[in-house]
Amino acid sequence: MKGLLIKDIKIIISQKKFFIMAIFLAAVFAWTTEDVTFSASYIVLLLSMLTLTTLSYDEANGGMLFLLTLPATRKTYVKSKYTFAVLNLVFASVFAFALCYVFAMVKGTALPLDDVISSIMGIMVAMGIMLSVTIPLELKYGAEKGRIAMLACIAVIVVLGIGVYKLLTEVIKVDVEGILLKLLERLPAVGNGLEILIVGVLLVILLLIFFVSYCVSGKIIKKKEF
């Protein structure tokens, strides 16, 4: 698995222009909007997508046939992808936080620590869920069809969400916003370690989703013919 991880890391390193452009755009957003939280989310979003880039490279020009001739099983390949995805998410989050800290120092402003951390954690969980759905789809259908399938799934979820909301508010006449506001008012105030608890719960949920996705991907690649 170590060799597969090194391969993916070298693929990412080869994308130097992408890194430079991402940092430049993040710096522009941070400077013009005076909001480093958006730049933090933007960095995590872009860097986490690089995991899918490695899948595309593996598939290109019959690359999977070559990889499977190496002393590495299909299970090892899947394990390396998910290990790389987790490491990439952690690196992207730390890198985004470091950039925000530098931006704040250069501008001479205080870093909104709580906002930056919550923003990074939110996009980290969101991208982790997205990768958990996309990796199995790309392994089953290929890079292009997998991404189309992912977009179709997102579209279905959005349409169902809007449909349920319209049904509750316009047909059944349920005050959804009022119920949500009451629930939020009953939540304890943030503090006394509540932030750490929320972060911990989110990370545990993300790891569980990754594990389920890993099991699904293992079954997919075991049956797939290249």
User: Regions with pLDDT < 50 over 5+ consecutive residues?
Assistant: none
Helix tally?
10
Q: Supply the helix-strand structural class.
A: mainly alpha
| SSE arrangement, N to C | HHHHHHHHHH
Tell me, what's the shape? globular
Write a structural description.
This protein is mostly helical. The chain has one domain. The protein is built from 10 helices and no strands. Helix 2 (16-33) runs antiparallel to helix 3 and helix 6 runs antiparallel to helix 10.
Question: What is the element layout, followed by pairings?
Answer:
Elements (H helix, E strand, L loop, with lengths): L1 H12 L2 H18 L2 H13 L1 H10 L3 H5 L6 H34 L5 H29 L1 H29 L4 H11 L7 H30 L3
Properties at a glance:
226 residues; single chain; mainly alpha
Gist of the model:
The chain has 226 residues and is mainly α.
